[in-house]
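Appendix B. One record, verbatim.
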Amino acid sequence: MKKILIVTNGNIGDYVMATAALKLLRESLPSDFIVLIAIERVRAFVENLNFVDDCIYTNFLASKSIFRQRLDQVLWFIKTFFKLRKMKFDECIFLDHSRFLAKAVLFYSIKKTVGPSSWWCGKITNPNAKFLTTVIKLPKDSDKVHMSVRYQTIVKAYLKNYNLAMPVLPKTSNKIKEKVYTLLAKTKQYSLAFCLCGDKVKGNEKIYPLKYTLEIIKTLSLNFDIDFYFIGTKIFDKYSKAAKNTFPSLSIHNLCRKTTLLDLKSVFEQIDLLISVDTGAIHIAATTPIKVIGLYGNNTACNSGPQTHRGKILYRPPPCSPCNFTRTVLKIPCYYGNNPKCLENIMPYDVVNEVSDVFNQKNM
């Protein structure tokens, strides 16, 4: 029995996409002892799947100052060092490119370390490659390769097999189904969720304009009988409050910060449609039967779109998109300076037309 350490320390969406690779690994190596390093926020998903035997959680947040990030990393290393070293891993597989974790693993005396040749964009060499004993070559233009496929490419090369899998999340319990059913309190013919505030980092932002959102609600409410739901983090609260204040007679529900990850999956199993920017929510939704409309601007969906045949992507890029390559490789600053307009080319009528198609098909 081998002991294998897996490093996938990305955000929620990255973890969801990595589950396909974890599934391949578990099914191919059922008797091996597999330990995962992942972010704390995905704990509920990890503990309700049997892909790994143990998980060491991190809480490294990019939203913190550089000093605080480094301090958190050092404290985590001190706290987990003896446990990880004592496990005496035979091999380590990196699914991401965390510089800190690549250096930390060096202290665990692991003889074989496996990882990718490049970052998310194929033209960017993985700076951790020098720490690896086995480097898996990835396509030259990884912007056009989905992250789920990228993760599986690493695992398939390690396993030397040709299987592929789809991302998978834990089955929803009856208790959670009932809880979410009560929370939704649906009274209308149709149900639609918004998740329109994502990251705002390094000159790009995944935030759809509030004024556009209000216009979408106004137009749709004139044509359809809809329950509207707002899901997401604290920064999306203001959207829900603005919508409620603007349209007090409409059925608008604020679910921001009111759902766990497992709850959120159940929400998507019980409503008709999600409109979302590139966030963890859209990838969770992709594992359920819900229809999805993805709004993309700073990058194409080729790399990080929802893996579902029930999805439609609206990509209306500004001149500087895709950002991964222009900003990181070519060092070209954002076309709009410090006020990026990544999603402002996706007009409300574009979204309304797609929603109308979904709801009209439901009646057929």
